[in-house]
Amino acid sequence: MSDLVYTKPLARLIDELQKLPGVGAKSAQRLAFHILKQSPNNVKELASAIIDAKEQIKFCSICSNLTATDPCDFCQDSRRDKTVICVIAEPNDLIALEKTKEFRGQYHVLQGLISPMEGIGPEKLKIKELLNRIGNSTVKEVILAINPTIEGEATTLYISKLIKPLDIKVTRIAFGLPIGGDLEYADTMTLARALEGRREIL
Predict the structure, then answer these.
(1) Which of 10, 11, 16, 97 is the most exposed place for a label (fewest CB within 10 A)?
(2) Which residue(s) pair with 66 in the sheet?
(3) Where does the pLDDT of residue 115 fall: very low under 50, low under 70, confident under 90, or very high at 90 and above?
(4) Which residue in 170, 71, 176, 159 sits closest to 122, CA to CA?
């Protein structure tokens, strides 16, 4: 960003905002000017919220979801079915599935998908934690609710092969979801039907 166009602090703010996903140069500029129009207290609250979130949020020691308490609220909820685990890629997927009000089991968040092109192998995901969790519990079914992308398919196949020998039912959500689609952006009705129509992986 040229310092001849923006004063240095503004140029730095715009540069940092552009690092956010989905924020291009024009959006970053609009956000920066919006922030500058806010009162000092509002800006401090925003900065404080970002810092607090970064410092206080961690992985749940059971399901690897993002949480400020450990275990997270889902793992502490005694009303949830502990015999079924729904495996998802990201915390955003958990939020999308919860909105359907169809799933009352437990979750496990992988924190990503296998992607050799990006240098992400199975060892960088929370797969070992999932296997340890299954081995130390009364889980009867593992639902793989993973996006139907190339990376999602590779991850689904890899995990299902690891779980099958453990004599646990492995299912995947039905594909009312379009190939290449994201759970995060699917409507609740589509997700609810995908959960209801899940199929066992043979």
Answers:
(1) 16
(2) 59
(3) very high
(4) 159
Range 39-64 burial, b when 16+ CB lie within 10 A, else e: eeeeeeeeeeeeeeeeeeeebbebbb
**If we measure between CA atoms, which residue out of 106, 16, 5 comes closest to residue 64?**
106
Q: Facing residues of 108 across strands?
A: 87
At residue 146, the 3 state secondary structure works out as coil
Neighbouring residues of 114: CB distance < 8 A, sequence distance ≥ 6: 120, 121, 122, 125, 151, 154, 155, 158
Reduced to 3 states, what is the DSSP secondary structure of residue 24? Answer: coil
* Dihedral sign computed on CA atoms, order 152, 153, 154, 160: positive
Sort 110 into a burial class: Cβ within 10 Å, 0-12 / 13-18 / 19+: buried
Write the pLDDT tens digit of every residue in 139-162: 999 999 998 888 999 999 999 999
pTM above 0.85, yes or no: no
Which residue pairs from 91-95 have beta carbons closer than 8 angstroms and sit at least 24 positions apart in sequence? 91/65, 91/66, 92/183, 92/184, 93/145, 93/147, 93/183, 93/184, 94/65, 95/184
Domains of the chain: 8-56 (1.10.8.420), 59-200 (3.40.1360.10)
Query: Coil, strand, or helix at residue 188?
Result: helix
Residues 84 and 141 sit within 8 Å (Cβ to Cβ):
yes
Spatial separation of the C-alpha atoms in residues 68 and 108, rounded to whole Å:
16
